[in-house]
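Forwarding the complex inputs:
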Amino acid sequence: MRKQFLLYIGVIIISIYFFYPIYILFLVSFSPIQFTLKMLYPLQYPISITFSNLIVAIHSFELIDPMIKSLKTALSVATLSIIIGIPTAYGISRLPQKISYLVITIIFIVDMMPSIVTAIPISSEFISLGLYDTFIGLALMQELIVLPLVTFILVGAFQSIPKEIEYQARIDGLGMVRTLYRILVPLSKPAIIASFLLSWMFSWDEFTYAIILSPIRPTLPIIIYDNITRGNLLASTSFALIVSIPVLILTIILQKYLKGEYLAGGLKG
Amino acid sequence: MNREKYISYLFVIPALIYVGIFSFYPTLDAVYLSFRNSHGQFTLDNYLALTTFGLYHSILNTIFITIGALLLQLFLGLIVASILMKEFRGKNIFSTIVILPIGFATVVSAVTFSLIFSSIGGYANSILLSLGLHPINWYANTPSSIITLILADSWKNTPLISLILLSGMVSIPPEIYQAAAVDGAGPIRRFFYITIPNLKSFIAISLIIRGISEFNIFALPLILVGYRPLFLTTLVYELYSTTATYFYSVAAASILLAFITVFIVIIIKLGGYKK
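Prediction (whole assembly, two chains):
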């Protein structure tokens, strides 16, 4: 009994720590401002509920363009990660071990390069190439963040497919490319969908590249930051909630893919 | 089958070209430019100038926040993973709650924590007040600002560590625990003599992943505390957005890069990180 008691104490404390900020985000978004930001010591519970904060936020001319830009960027990142990730992962699982190890190490190093270090020199290159402030330029850089993760998820997926299936396809006369796209890719559909959605999520939330490479026509995270620097905390809170909803839904759907093995597995090499 | 071997190489070449152009080239370019002046000559002036912009403080603060955040996240991550190994009523709800913060952007967590921790008033102070305690200015000095940042950062990032540690705990064969229990080892001794040693490589991986991200912590301090206290990333950004040339900012960025490299080498040497 004592052990169960301690367990529940832990569960409750941890749950409060993880849930309280989410509760506050919703509380401020759905309460009239006089009970939240206008109070020095705001109330911890809702007195009345309003949708006007969100309606004002949705109608604000500030939201639409950044949302379109964020959507375009995130879709490009997700698509690109599948286009590059599938052949890379397949190549890694087929190359001699020494070489695949080298490729994994290179991708691992890319994972560790700070965004802010790469972003500054590339910003001046992008200005001369006309990619500065465009969604394509931003997507090309954000891809660096997701490519390692996607490659490792897909390497894991390809390795889990029994070798016999692939041998059979080869005996039937399929070349490597066709074996990959006709046999392995359909069998790895869940991992590919998870990679696509995770890439989408990472790009949707990304800040560092976005603020340096696309400050004039910004994405949603940058608009939230801009509103804070202008002291408009209510608008940023409402925007923050709007930005979070699609990602929250995806997180709950993807729960079974958000596994330590996936997130760390690749790094074990 | 030799032809096949060459085709395998072709599969990975696009990715290698891509990371070469967009990651390695700009990184090397940053280091190269950090040693140049506006006439393209070699110089150390960029680095010397950094000391007047608060370089030492930003290095120290970055190290403090990295160590503090890693300790807290590892501690909480071990607790969360241990809880998730048990069966209890409400486990599904608990596991959803602890995974939810992953779904919030760093910017969103920064906005939320700026509502909770304000220098005057705010939600955390309102709780303190209702408990009969004195309100706190969370940003009164550098240590308290860093602690506030660690709390906010760990909220978003502990779930990832918990997931990694959980997958490590799942991989430990239950027979070892049963044998130890038969030999009379209590839960605490089992935790320190079985769980921790078996988790060594998983702990190392979480420390690498999170440690690198902590060194790069950027959006959170930028939004919660602005440029004071200063961190390496916010120093880079401050120099980038306020100076006309970017020689100073790439010098600061190169220092960040050097620290990350050193950090990785230390972790790989210390940890059970074996390929």
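DSSP finds 13 helices and no strands in chain B.
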